[in-house]
Amino acid sequence: MKLLAVLALTGAAQAHYHFSKLVINGQPEAAEWTSIRQTKNYQTNAGVTDVNSPDMRCYQMKAGTGTATVAAGETLGFLALSAVTHFGPVQFYAARVPDGADINTWEAAGNVWFKIGSITAVPPMGSSEATWPAYNKKQVDVVIPKNMPSGKYLIRVESIALHQAQSVGGAQIYLSCAQVEVTGGGSGKPGPLVAFPGAYKASDPGLIWSYYPIPTSYTAPGPAVWTG
């Protein structure tokens, strides 16, 4: 029990983080919140803990201001300031902005999101970088599927921190939404489509972690990755 308490306190003492810059063609954006909607945690770096909250969508405090351009099949990076300092999976979702809608203000409500990437656990299970490839990384990347149709999208990154997720409601989710125009895309039909909030339940196994006994496997929450 003492070990569990120490682990919990250690996790709580670590710095939180936010995703505020994109990396395109290997180059980070010069300023924060250029193509990413500014999030409510831009000062506190606190995560979302209520999966039923509308903050699960983009956690934004105001409308977007800019749109980045990336070609289908290319890598899009997100910078974590100062790093992904909690273990757990990092996942990526996309939602296509309807024709005629303003990308800066579109809410992306309802079943419009599909998963395009997941950096999740690899065996052996534990709470270190050996299990969690995104842990302590300053940059996390996703490849835009080659067959993803061209158009404007919100690309949502989420880091699910499991360090205090020993009970329901303990997971902390650090997320933001980038505004991106995808060029050179294909004719794929992305899916399955899910909603935020709605895609996760607080009791999902992927939102709970046990230090003892250590799990023998782990499955991140949400639908399967659409690869195109």
Q: Can you give keywords for this protein?
A:
about 230 residues; mainly beta; 5-stranded mixed beta sheet; 4-stranded antiparallel beta sheet; 1 helix; globular
Radius of gyration: 17 Å
Strand order of the largest sheet: 3-9-8-5-6
Report the sheet-strand fraction.
Answer: 25-35%
| Assembly type | single chain
Count of alpha and pi helical runs: 1
- Average of pLDDT: 93
Q: What class would the helix/strand composition place it in?
A: mainly beta
The major pleated sheet works out as: 5 strands, mixed
Poorly predicted spans:
1-13
**What proportion of the residues is helical, as a percent range?**
under 10%
Return the string of H and E elements. Answer: HEEEEEEEEE
User: Based on CA inertia axes, which overall geometry fits?
Assistant: globular
Q: Give me the count of strands.
A: 9
Termini separation = 46 Å
Description:
With 228 residues, the chain is mainly beta. It is 5% helix and 27% strand. The chain contains one helix and nine strands. The protein has one helix at 2-13, and strands at residues 18-24, 27-28, 68-71, 75-81, 90-96, 113-119, 139-143, 151-161, 172-183. The strands form two sheets. A five-stranded mixed beta sheet has the order 3-9-8-5-6, with no helix packed on it. It has a four-stranded antiparallel beta sheet with strand order 2-1-4-7, with no helix packed on it. The chain is globular and about 50 Å long. It starts with a helix and ends in a 45-residue tail after the last strand.
How do the helices and strands line up, and which of them pair or pack?
Layout: H1 2-13, E1 18-24, E2 27-28, E3 68-71, E4 75-81, E5 90-96, E6 113-119, E7 139-143, E8 151-161, E9 172-183
Parallel strand pairs: 3-9
Antiparallel strand pairs: 1-2, 1-4, 4-7, 5-6, 5-8, 8-9
